[in-house]
Amino acid sequence: MLPLAAVISEPSLFSLEHLPRLPQRLVELLLGNFGAPEWLVSIAGFLVAAGTVVGVFLGGFALLSLIERKTLARIQNRIGPNRAGWFGILQPVADGIKMLTKEDIVPDKAEKFLHLLAPILIVVPAILALGVIPYGREWTPVSLELGLLFFFAVGSLTELSVFIAGWASGSKFPMLGAMRAISQMISYELPLIITALGVVMVSGTLSLPHIVEQQNGGFWHWNFFTPWGFFAGILFFICSIAEANRCPFDLPEGESEIVAGHMTEYSGFKYALFFMGEYLGLFAISALGITLFLGGWQAPLPGLGFVPTWIWFFGKLAFVIFLFLWIRGTYPRVRIDQLMRFAWLCMIPMALLTLPAAGVWHFTGRGLLSWVLVVPLLLVPWVIVGVIFNKRLAAATRTYTFADG
Amino acid sequence: MVSAPSTYSSAPILEGSDADQLLRVSLGPQHPSTHGVFRMNVVLDGETVVSLKPVFGYLHRNHEKIAEGVTYLSSMPYTDRLDYICPLSNNWAYASAVEKLAGIEVPERAEYMRVILAELTRLINHTAFMGFILGDMGAWGSALMYAFRERELILDLFEDLTGARMMANFMRFGGCRNDLPAGWAEKCSVLVDDYGPFLDEMEKFLVGNEILLARCQDVGQLPKETLINGGITGPMLRAAGVNYDIRKADPYGIYERFSFRIPLGDKGDCYDRIMIRFLEMRESLKILRQALDQLPDGDYVNPKIKIRNFKPPVGEAYARIEGPKGELGFHLISDGTVNPYRYRVRPPSFINLTLLEDMCLGLDLADVVIILGSIDIVLGEVDR
């Protein structure tokens, strides 16, 4: 059979739904057609599938670096980059060329090998984590039975990389940044995983595609629109801000205090790699949040099935990323002790509460009874924690006296 | 009166077994939030400040010595460059010192113009301060851009009047350099009317912000006595509840004619310092409104003043004004020649900075940045 005929004989290949799988299927069909052995076909297919994800998200990274600057500029009453190309669209290219042509400086006291390893170690886990996310009904690059576990396992490598960067630079600001990063990321990884556990309890699976499939049938079936999922989703979002080192939890790189934290001694392309790693990490954690709580690639309303599912996914991704940018443009940074107190006194207790709530929700049949039981179970402790927390942390605004003479 | 200070600086002894656990960090002179080329040699225990030694002088331009070698008027442009956020206050302080030295009368209209310009400068300074301190807290320029939007409007007024947006060089001995251009007072009055809503908006967004409250409250307090003995002036002192504003305590110009109040804080922490500046801006708007309404016709400069070969009589004078940052004074000694025998600036930024270590000890590194921001320094004035 001719290659072209083989392609045409698979009618679904050219639908928009299958578009992201097209390169992989094409390569597999072509190789199979030329009589390549089975193992070669599957390896090549995997490589192309991985290449698609990497390509999409590197493009997304370039686009996001521009969109972030544009959005922040609009929030701050500025115009933002508009010199390179129409609407500044070539700005990422210009930035890339600048980064590539800059001198790569390695400090004298740095551990040379680890200094090189750290920026690589931050990009690779982010890409690995992106590999297990179901982007569409037909588009899960690697469908793992234990996808969620894999995600958190590789995700925790990021902390390691940040700490390596801070330590191997042989400098003080990076060291301070690394100290902050370790305490912050470990503290927030706990509630992050605990909130995800609620979803696992209700879904009964660690496989991300299955979790998404169980949320079908309109947005009211999404985990976020259940009482426990609402709490867990918000906690997950806050934790993911901290995990992604975004404002107001951007302490590891807190610019006004420790210059650039763990990235202080990096220049040129290694610096760009850190940025890439952070943006890819942001994509990954947002994608996981969407998968767990916002129904993944599911359309918000049942009648909208004609739109390719991956478009829904990326639409949701854009929305979540915009929330991150919005918060960055709005809030000042918290202090390290406040950050830790917030994690251990507020986030973790509330995250632990979502577990029994999810259990009650699951075993009372998700009907009226479960609403009646679960909502007070969450709201009452939330109010109590909120009141205690507010008393201990946030003081009130003050009144001032005036002197006339 | 206040009793003698207990300690000005309690520098810890960095010896013994713990000394090698400490981290010495040099914050600055190239650091994103030292407000210029300022350096702090900080010793940290974890992230807690154990010792902090300010190092300055990177921007030293020999201003005082240069002034002794040139004529009195030639120093006027240099004063713009002391506190370059508010040049017109500096102009006024220097001009009033020379006027005191030579006994020059200032016409009514010029006094009003000076009050208007000084209060506009105070608005500029405090507005920019709001942006800077939020930037120090990590709000990444959002507040700063909005603060600068309003600052630009005032700078436009300055440009109309003096020809320069920042380096005004506008005051002269016995008055001002030129009269208000036609329509300037009306433009200014529109600005004054529009400024109140801007302040309301800014206050609404900033003051209730939970993170701002958590970051600023109970940070950087010092007892009143220490502040007074340290010579601290301006909003920093008033935030601690000391009623000392030179406009009221030792009135100069025509401030006695206006009704305004002095906002006083209680605790004297960074939050009070921010709020006092907010309230001061509102009082400045009141002064501006009154001054613009009362603005008389007449000379903008004393016509009898000699410009060439200006020689004040032998003597000594110290004149001070309530600058936006604190007491700004000029001390001049004349030996009867065309240039001063001694010329000395009392810069509020520099003297307010002296208690930095006492405020920071035992706090986080992140607090140091906010405390430094709340002092509101300009390195041009610190280093001169």
What does this entry look like structurally?
The complex is a heterodimer of chains A (405) and B (384). Chain A is built from 15 helices and one strand, in the order H-H-H-H-H-H-H-H-H-H-H-H-H-H-H-E. Chain A has 405 residues and is mainly alpha-helical. In chain A, helix 8 packs antiparallel against helix 10 and helix 12 packs across helix 13. The mean pLDDT of chain A is 83. In chain B, helix 4 runs antiparallel to helix 5, helix 4 packs antiparallel against helix 11 and helix 6 runs antiparallel to helix 11. The longest helix of chain B has 29 residues. With 384 residues, chain B is of the alpha+beta class. Chain B contains 15 helices and nine strands. In chain B, the strands form three sheets. Chain B has a three-stranded antiparallel beta sheet. Chain B folds into two domains: 44 residues, no CATH class; 320 residues, Orthogonal Bundle (Cytochrome-c3 Hydrogenase, chain B). Classes of the chains: A mainly alpha (405), B alpha+beta (384). At the A-B interface, helix 8, helix 11, helix 13, helix 14 and strand 1 of A face strand 1, helix 4, helix 5, helix 7 and strand 6 of B. Strand 1 of chain A pairs antiparallel with strand 6 of chain B, so a sheet runs across the interface.
Short structural summary:
The complex is a heterodimer of chains A (405) and B (384). Chain A folds into two domains: 4-88; 104-385, no CATH class.
Strand adjacency order, main sheet of chain B: 1-2-3
Most strands sheet of chain A? none
How many alpha or pi helices of chain B? 15
Report the principal-axis shape of chain A. Answer: globular
Shape of chain B: globular
Q: Please tally the helical runs of chain A, counting DSSP H or I stretches of 4 or more residues.
A: 15
Largest sheet of chain B, in brief, is: 3 strands, antiparallel
